Amino acid sequence: AQAFVRAGKQELPLDMTGLTPEQLAYSNALYGHLRALTEGYKKAAKLVRLVKNSKGIEAWRRLTRRFDPQNPEVHAAQLEQIIVFGSKNPVKHLGDVPGVLDQFQRIMDDYEENTGDVGINDSVKKMIMMQMIPPGLKEATRNTLMAARTDVKEVSPDYLRTIIVQRCEFDEAAMGSAIP
How many helices (H) and strands (E) does the chain have? Predict the structure, then answer.
C-alpha cells in the first residue's frame, strides 16, 4: 500500500530497473487490471494505454497524478473547468437550461468539496452562468430587472430557473428571442 502512495506522489516517471521479477510480475498484473477498470473512461483509459511495457505501478502513478482530488494539479483543472463552463456549454434550447445549471452546480460542489475552498465569488458565478444562456433570455432577464429596478448581487441557478419558468416563452425558430 505504501508503494502506491509513494508512486502517486512522484512527479517523474518511475524507474522500474530495480524491481525483482516478482515485483515486475505484480506490476504487469496491475497494469492488466487498470486497463480493464478504466475501460469506458476515455481519459483514464488513454493514460493507462500510453504506459509502455505494461508497467502497472507507472500507470497507477499517472492515474493518481491526473485524478486524485488531493492533487493541486487536479484542483487547478477543476477551477479551469468552472471558468470555461459557460462558454463551453451554451444553451441551445430553453428547456436545457435547468439541466445545464444542475451540471454547473455539480462541478462547483465537487470543486468546493475537494478543495474546501468556496473562493469563487457570486459575480464570477453570474458571469459564467450568463455566458451559457441564449441572448434573448439574457435580454429578457435584463429588461425584467430594469423594470423592477432591482439591483442583482447574485444570480443563482434557482433564480434563473424561476425567470425561465415564470417570465419567458422561448421562440425556438428565432433561437433566442424571449417574450416577457
Answer: 10, 2
State whether residue 177 is helix, strand or coil.
strand
pLDDT band at 69 (very low <50, low <70, confident <90, very high): low
Dihedral angle sign, alpha carbons of residues 84, 85, 91, 92: positive
pTM: 0.45
31 dihedral zone (left: phi>0; alpha: psi -120 to 50; beta): alpha
Sign of the dihedral through C-alpha 48, 50, 54, 60: negative
DSSP state of 52: G
Closest CA to 55 of 99, 16, 22, 106: 16
Partners of 170 in the β-ladder: 178
pLDDT tens by residue, 34-65: 999 999 888 889 989 998 888 888 898 888 87
Report residue 58: phi and psi, to 5°.
Answer: -65, -40
Q: Given a cut of 80, is residue 99 above it in pLDDT?
A: yes
